[in-house]
């Protein structure tokens, strides 16, 4: 297949813009949370459930929807998911209370869980094998680009108008992306196994389990500290929101670079060395936070390395899973997406426990980096195991039936 859809639109930018919308929706909530809490007259801890509900729904629904939709045309899946995403954001903008807002976020998360694996698998299938990781990285680049442009703009819009305007913007972007998919992408059916059981079979491959466990661990370790990054970096920023925004901008810019360069590196070499180096850098950036978070220059370097390495982990993971069983690519990539969002939710919860168990605020914030680095170190060990696991042996062919005696029917 060619890199341009028959109707003239390059397919990778179309898929990346959809990922950009979903990435903005995923991460902008942290910026609008205080506005939501004030508007709905709830505590900030209660309002935090809109982020947790999104992450947990994504984690649960990604593999379920990936398994159920593996044989459906990718363009259809992308259209349904983007329209569902637009609907969920419109309902979020209209929600009069926290309960209905939570329900709307569940709709949005389920749609996002359907889109990202389908977009990644579609990009891989539409690209030549030697450019597969690069194509996946372009889609993932839409997610990382959201931290550079989408999240700051959405946060500003919420502050200047209100948080509902941010969700209306995302709903409109979802509709525009759906139109681009409808008129710009070719029909695409991935090679699929005959039935659901056959498509689920690769998920039992030990290489899949080890790869997904690696993602879960390094995402948990990273978000143990990233969830509370404003407090972690307060000594460096002096509590100044503008300074923190600049540091997060550096994080986002290097995240985009990490995604792009990792995709090229995987195509040139292989997933394993790219993954191992990325996880090693990520662990170093997080574990040294107690040393770097007190000064602006060192904090900026730490966040830049963190953003680069954190996003550089994703192209090799997706490439490895797609390569294990291309016919089950959407399902396997959805498992990786589920592990990503499960790690986000688990990291935030574990970070809360670390902070509560500390004797003081500074001790707790230092411990976030140390515990996070330790978990990422564990993920490095699991990744080493994953890269060395052999493919399961193919089942031996059934012996040929003995010829029936003369005069006796084979039935």
Automatic annotation (TrEMBL):
Keywords: Cell membrane, Membrane, Transmembrane, Transmembrane helix. The lineage of its organism: Bacteria, Bacillati, Actinomycetota, Actinomycetes, Kitasatosporales. Residues 11-391 form the Major facilitator superfamily (MFS) profile domain. The chain crosses the membrane at residues 12-33, 48-69, 76-96, 102-126, 138-159, 165-188, 208-231, 243-262, 274-291, 328-350, 370-387. InterPro entries: MFS (IPR011701), MFS_dom (IPR020846), MFS_Efflux_Transporters (IPR050189), MFS_trans_sf (IPR036259). This is MFS transporter. Signal peptide: none annotated. It is a multi-pass membrane protein. It is found in: Cell membrane.
């Amino acid at each position: 297949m060619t890199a341009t859809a028959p109707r003239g639109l390059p397919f990778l930018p179309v898929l990346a813009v959809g990922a950009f919308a979903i990435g903005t929706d995923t991460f902008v909530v942290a910026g609008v949370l205080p506005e939501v809490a004030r508007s709905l007259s709830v505590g900030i801890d209660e309002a935090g459930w809109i982020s947790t509900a999104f992450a947990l729904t994504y984690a649960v629904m990604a593999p379920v929807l990936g398994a159920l939709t593996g044989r459906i045309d990718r363009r259809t899946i992308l259209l349904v998911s983007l329209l569902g995403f637009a609907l969920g954001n419109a309902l979020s903008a209209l929600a009069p209370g926290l309960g209905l807002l939570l329900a709307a976020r569940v709709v949005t998360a389920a749609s996002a869980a359907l889109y990202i694996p389908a977009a990644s698998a579609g990009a891989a299938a539409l690209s030549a094998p030697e450019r597969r990781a690069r194509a996946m990285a372009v889609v993932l680049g839409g997610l990382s680009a959201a931290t550079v442009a989408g999240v700051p703009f959405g946060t500003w819009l919420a502050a200047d108008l209100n948080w509902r305007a941010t969700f209306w913007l995302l709903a409109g972007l979802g509709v525009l992306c759906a139109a681009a998919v409808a008129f710009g992408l070719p029909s695409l059916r991935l090679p699929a196994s005959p039935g659901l059981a056959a498509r689920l079979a690769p998920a039992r491959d030990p290489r899949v389990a080890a790869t997904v466990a690696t993602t879960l661990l390094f995402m948990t370790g990273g978000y143990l500290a990233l969830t509370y990054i404003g407090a972690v970096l307060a000594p460096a920023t002096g509590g100044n929101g503008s300074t923190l925004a600049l540091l997060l901008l550096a994080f986002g810019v290097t995240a985009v670079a990490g995604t792009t360069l990792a995709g090229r590196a995987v195509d040139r070499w292989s997933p394993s060395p790219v993954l191992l180096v990325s996880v090693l850098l990520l662990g170093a950036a997080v574990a040294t936070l107690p040393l770097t978070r007190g000064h602006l220059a060192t904090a900026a370097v730490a966040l830049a390395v963190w953003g680069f390495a954190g996003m550089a982990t994703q192209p090799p993971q997706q490439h490895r899973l797609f390569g294990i069983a291309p016919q089950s690519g959407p399902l396997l990539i959805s498992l990786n997406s589920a592990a990503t969002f499960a790690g986000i939710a688990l990291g935030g919860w574990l970070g809360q426990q670390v902070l509560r168990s500390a004797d003081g605020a500074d001790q707790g914030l230092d411990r976030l980096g140390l515990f996070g680095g330790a978990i990422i170190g564990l993920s490095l060990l699991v990744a080493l195991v994953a890269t060395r696991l052999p493919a399961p042996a193919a089942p031996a062919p059934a012996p040929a039936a003995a010829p029936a005696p003369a005069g006796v029917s084979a039935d």
